[in-house]
Write a structure and sequence with these properties.
Length: 698
């Protein structure tokens, strides 16, 4: 695309001007390029004009006829002016009505030939004739070169805004697209277009807005027309090209080689833990260790289902860095999760003679000095780790947990804090492969695809409010066997704004229901030392029932806990439900996850809960979640630091994504900085602008 179109304000297009430009700006349309990617959200077939005698009630149709009469009717009671038009075509008459638009009398005068498009209804008074209320109209011209925009064609329908109606916006888009299409420069190699049957960019931009007569209407409305495929391919190609450039650029960077570390600390850690690592854990650690031996910076994604043992693998990698004389940092998205990581690893680390410190927003002064001096080898913290006042002594490895809460930019900020440290991205949230290619396309990929042996499948059941009696009876019998239970609520305290049950009164209620058992309470507003004390008591078996909010979602490992009850399960997302279920089933005993739902369930909530009952595999659940919510909600691109996709859909266009990735990576392999493709380089820079600097200038 001509780069001038990205900077060309729409107000300078003929027929737009400052007033209309202000209205377009409400839709985010400021430049010509913005307008080209304001894609119609549906299309209407107005190609055929119907005879008035053949009209049908409650059907969207188009009619061509001569204006017989045009009058303004006043309605005194409602103080409304109705413009009424009657047209005829020799087979009958049709009335058109427009409310509070008297100016139309000057436009649609008797004798003119017009086309009306709208929903046909029977005359509400006589029941005999037909009428259209507020139909779209077009005056037919004798000029053969004048196009019909609103009728007698496949008509685009755009999302509008206050003060800007569908017809006015369509006319503006026609002016802008007509101005821009001849100026658009193709940047994709001709062989790629030919190989995948993609139309040229200029043709696609014109026809995605105003399709030619032979275009299949269904393919347009499903977003799979040749023009949609071309623009979707463009977005995915630019996205993947940026990731390919990042990855290729890092391949030539000088990083840290940890070849001097023999892995003795990692071996000692394995001897300390009371379990044997699975074959999948060993394989993934070897992949990571091989990366760390290389002088190139590691950038690897470690993915695995709940309970697959990612943390111990990451800790082994951190010990490799420490053995080579470097510091290692583990960053988590919340204080609660960083505390859980700290509690889980600091005892192991200190048992090896090393020091571990927790750095969060609340505890800073002493840890900052110890980090800067090198007195501590392993640092656990939140995003506080990437703030300016944190100075590492010798940062060698960064482990980022739950990466989808961060993004490309935050990864880059953390890397700048050390000598180009190795980066290991770790997620307990399974991600569909199509999304992984999009968000992690610049990373190498490892998957722990095996759960520890003798792990029993968690039995999941859905219960309604009336089932609570039997549910409580089962909890009582399970605890009498010596087991423990989690009870999770969506809120800490009750609120007047919502009828949801909450943890604080819930704890009091369970004290009354189970007076013979010991109950505890944990939530995010408690002080850190209080939370640590409660969790330690639960781990030690001093608490039978732990009432909680979602602070136990990740990082908690109590093998004796066999029962998870999630109250108001209909209010939780699939990923969160799966994470919570992952807190049980960690010991040798059969475990259960009970979903307690209240009220009438929405269709989406019912689908989520049904998926939870039917499936325990996290990757299958992620695929289902992706299908239910769509890519935007599943993984907000704004949150992840990725460019927005305006045409491509990661569910619908999964195959196209694979093609775009293959072609873009091959292009970058041949031309790493795209110096031989100046138009493509400009497009990639613009596509990623505001997210990350793709091409380094230093």
């Amino acid at each position: 695309m001509n780069k001038d179109l990205h900077d060309h304000p729409v107000q300078f297009v003929r027929g737009i001007g400052p007033g209309k430009a202000r209205l377009l700006a409400r839709l985010g349309i400021k430049t010509v390029a913005d307008a080209l990617f304001h894609i119609p959200y549906r299309y209407e077939d107005r190609r055929r004009s119907c005879r008035i005698a053949d009209l049908r009630h409650e059907v969207l149709q188009s009619v061509t006829g001569k204006v017989i009469s045009a009058e303004i009717v006043n309605t005194p009671r409602k103080r409304m002016k109705i413009f009424e038009l009657v047209i005829g075509d020799g087979t009958g008459f049709l009335r058109g009505k427009w409310f509070n638009q008297p100016y139309m009398k000057k436009l649609l005068t008797p004798g003119k030939m017009v086309v009306l498009s709208g929903v046909v209804r029977r005359d509400p008074y006589s029941g005999a004739g037909f009428e259209m209320q507020n139909p779209e109209y077009e005056v037919l011209s004798d000029d053969p070169d004048r196009d019909n925009i609103h009728t007698l064609r496949i008509v685009p329908v755009y999302r509008t805004t206050a003060g800007l109606g569908a017809k006015a916006l369509r006319a503006m888009m026609y002016s802008i697209v007509g101005f821009a299409s001849p100026l658009i420069e193709e940047y994709l190699p001709g062989e790629i277009l030919e190989r995948y049957g993609l139309p040229p960019l200029g043709e696609a931009c014109m026809h995605i807005h105003f399709p030619p007569d032979g275009t299949d209407l269904d393919s347009l409305n499903r977003g799979v027309s040749p023009y949609h495929r071309r623009l979707a391919f463009e977005e995915l190609y630019l996205l993947q090209t940026g990731l390919a450039v990042l990855k290729k650029g890092r391949g030539g960077e000088r990083g840290i080689s940890f070849a001097s570390a023999a892995g003795r600390l990692a071996d000692r850690l394995e001897d300390m833990v009371p379990f044997r690592l699975t074959d999948a854990q060993q394989r993934v650690f070897r992949e990571i260790h091989e990366d760390m031996r290389s002088p190139r910076p590691m950038n690897r994604l470690l993915q695995g289902d709940v309970g697959s043992g990612k943390t111990i693998v990451a800790l082994k990698a951190m010990l490799v860095a420490v053995e080579a004389g470097y510091q290692a940092a583990l960053m988590a998205p919340t204080e609660i999760l960083s505390e859980q990581h700290y509690l889980n690893i600091h005892g192991l680390v200190e048992g090896l003679g090393l020091r571990c410190v927790l750095l969060t927003g609340g505890r800073r002064e002493k840890p900052l000095k110890e980090i800067a001096s090198g007195d501590v080898q392993i640092i656990v913290g939140t995003h506080a780790l990437i703030q300016e006042d944190v100075s590492f002594h010798r940062l060698g490895l960064v482990v980022i947990d739950e990466q989808h809460r961060f993004g490309v930019m935050q990864r880059a900020m953390l890397r700048k804090k050390g000598l180009n440290p190795d980066v290991l991205v770790m997620t307990a949230t399974p991600i569909p492969r199509t999304l992984s290619l999009t968000l992690y396309g610049d990373l190498d990929y490892s998957v722990i695809d095996e759960l520890p042996p003798r792990r029993k499948q968690v039995i999941t059941r859905l219960f309604r409010e009336q089932d609570k009696g039997g549910l409580y009876g089962f909890i009582r019998s399970e605890i009498k066997k010596g087991r423990q239970a989690y009870i999770v609520y969506p809120m800490i305290e009750e609120s007047e704004k919502t009828p949801l049950r909450s943890a604080v009164p819930g704890k009091e209620a369970f004290d009354r229901v189970f007076p013979e058992f010991r109950t505890g309470l944990i939530h995010g507003r408690m002080r850190q030392d209080e939370r640590e004390g409660v969790m330690e008591a639960f781990k030690n078996g001093e608490i039978d029932i732990l009432v909680s909010t979602t602070v136990v979602e990740v990082g908690v490992d109590v093998p004796n806990a066999t029962l998870m009850l999630i109250v108001h399960a209909e209010r939780f997302g699939l990923s969160q439900l799966h994470q919570l279920r992952g807190r049980v089933g960690r010991g040798p005993h059969q475990s259960y996850c009970f979903l307690l739902a209240y009220g009438k369930l929405s269709d989406e909530a019912r689908r989520r809960l049904d998926v939870m009952v039917r499936h325990t595999d996290g990757f299958r659940i992620a695929e289902e979640d992706f299908m239910i919510r769509g890519p935007g909600e599943f993984f907000g691109t704004r949150q992840s630091g990725m460019p927005d996709l305006k045409v491509a859909n990661l569910i619908r266009d999964a195959r196209l994504l694979g093609i775009a990735r293959k072609e873009s990576f091959e292009t970058v392999e041949r031309d790493p900085d795209l110096s031989g493709h100046p138009l493509l380089r400009d497009r990639v820079e613009r596509f990623w602008r505001g997210k990350i600097e793709i091409f380094r200038t230093s």
